[in-house]
């Protein structure tokens, strides 16, 4: 298979972890005889510094020419005081709109060997395996008007929660399609006791559910979902929700696994290249120190192979390699207990070495043959 991957390293640890993800994709290419061609683009603070804008046209072009996009992360204190059109995050929102990345998938998976890294007791998190499907291009983050005003002598402010029915339907359908291949349960999260948008969301969820008779649908208020994620995270299979609720709940869920450095994500489009990125940000506190955990970016590369290229076996090999390395006791600083840990580059080396020749991988290959 020959495929083009656009790589947008971004800022801070984004540059370090995408390097690791590219190394892993190259290792997969070598082992399975695929040609992955990498093209690079600027985004975020790095793009502001070099091109005067958080998302240059050339980056949009690079992405549109590719079969999939791998992103690091954007942002950092250097640009925190910039005017809003020159904020790194603008680049992120803009690429989501440009590529119409409407569905953000964030799997939350329990690793037995990391049980001690979670702030929750093992009995609560053992076996946790769910996925948050977050709407990504609508809701409060994109609705207009979004502005400050003066009414009488008082400053007022408005943000708008706007959705088209079709936008709600396609994300809910994505959740049901995801659930079909899992434990067949969709929890739709809203605030229907207060918000009209949530009441429409519920109606649409009920309609879509009729097309999936084997999948159970339940509704849950967002405040209750926030509580349930901590009290009984094993309860969930597929959680679907609107943009802002999803943003908050997925960060809450990320802590179950012990570190933001473990969580991958996929942002899918119906047509064109989808984008894959770790859930974490640019981690300015550890950037440039070879301390970042590259696993979230590496698992994002696995999602890229699965969702964009249909390479299920190769994706499973990456996931298995990560599991083997953790099982062998290797840790980056965020997961380590004490001062004995691997740097970013050594963790990448450990994972690529497993992909290149470990017997655990052979058993996956047998399972898929
Ligand atoms: P963050 O995710 O960058 O960091 C939060 C904490 O997690 C920090 O202590 C950091 O050291 C740690 N952490 C994050 N990634 C890690 C990794 N791979 N390995 C080990 N530890 C890791 O969030 P923040 O500090 O709130 O934000 C920093 C910057 O990142 C801000 O400018 C923010 O706007 C931006 N941000 C970008 C994205 C994105 O690009 N998608 C997402 C969130 C935040």
Account of the 3D structure:
- With 369 residues, the chain is α/β, with parallel strands linked by helices.
- The protein has two domains: 1-102 and 269-369, Isopropylmalate Dehydrogenase; 108-258, Isopropylmalate Dehydrogenase, CATH 3.40.718.10.
- It has 13 helices and twelve strands.
- The strands form two sheets. Strands 2-1-3-12-11-4-5-10-8-9 form a ten-stranded mixed beta sheet, with helices on both faces. It has a two-stranded antiparallel sheet with strand order 6-7.
- A hairpin with a 5-residue loop joins strand 11 and strand 12.
- The model has no long low-confidence stretch (mean pLDDT 94).
- The protein binds nicotinamide-adenine-dinucleotide.
- Nicotinamide-adenine-dinucleotide (NAD) binds at residues 13, 17, 73-76, 89, 92, 260-261, 277, 280-286, 292-293, 296, 334.
- Nicotinamide-adenine-dinucleotide binds next to helix 1 and helix 4.
- Residues 4-351 form the Isopropylmalate dehydrogenase-like domain.
- Homodimer.
- Its cofactor is Mn(2+); Mg(2+).
- It is found in: Cytoplasm.
């Amino acid at each position: 298979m020959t495929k083009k991957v656009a790589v947008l390293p971004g800022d801070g640890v984004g540059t370090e972890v995408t390097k690791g993800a590219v190394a892993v994709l190259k290792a997969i290419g070598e082992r399975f005889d695929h040609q992955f061609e990498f093209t690079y683009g600027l985004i975020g603070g790095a793009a502001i510094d070099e091109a005067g804008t958080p998302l240059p046209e050339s980056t949009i072009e690079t992405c549109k020419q590719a079969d999939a996009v791998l992103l690091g992360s954007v942002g950092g204190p250097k640009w925190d005081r910039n005017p809003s059109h020159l904020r790194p995050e603008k680049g992120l929102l803009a690429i989501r709109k440009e590529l119409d990345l409407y569905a953000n998938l964030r799997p939350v998976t329990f690793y037995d060997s990391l049980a001690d890294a979670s702030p929750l007791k093992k009995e609560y998190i053992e076996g946790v395996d769910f996925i948050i499907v977050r709407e990504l291009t609508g809701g409060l983050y994109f609705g207009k008007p979004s502005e400050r005003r003066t009414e009488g002598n008082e400053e007022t402010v408005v943000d708008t929660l706007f959705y088209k029915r079709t936008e709600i339907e396609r994300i809910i359908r994505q959740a049901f399609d995801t659930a079909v291949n899992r434990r067949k349960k969709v929890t739709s999260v809203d605030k229907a006791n207060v918000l009209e948008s949530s009441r429409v969301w519920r109606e649409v969820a009920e309609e879509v559910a009729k097309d999936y008779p084997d999948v159970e649908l339940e509704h849950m208020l967002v405040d209750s979902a926030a509580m349930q994620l901590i009290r009984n995270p094993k309860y969930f299979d597929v959680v679907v929700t609107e943009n802002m609720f999803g943003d908050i709940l997925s960060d809450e869920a990320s802590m179950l696994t012990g570190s933001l450095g473990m969580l991958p994500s996929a942002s899918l489009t119906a047509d064109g290249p989808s984008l894959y990125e770790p859930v974490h940000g640019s981690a300015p506190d550890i950037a440039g120190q070879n301390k970042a955990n590259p696993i979230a970016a590496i698992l994002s590369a696995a999602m890229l192979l699965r969702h964009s290229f249909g390479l299920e076996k190769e994706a499973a090999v990456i996931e298995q390699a990560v599991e083997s390395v953790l099982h062998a006791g290797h840790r980056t600083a965020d997961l380590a207990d004490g001062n004995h840990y691997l740097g970013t580059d050594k963790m990448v080396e450990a994972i690529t070495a497993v992909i290149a020749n470990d017997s655990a991988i052979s058993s996956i290959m047998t399972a898929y043959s």
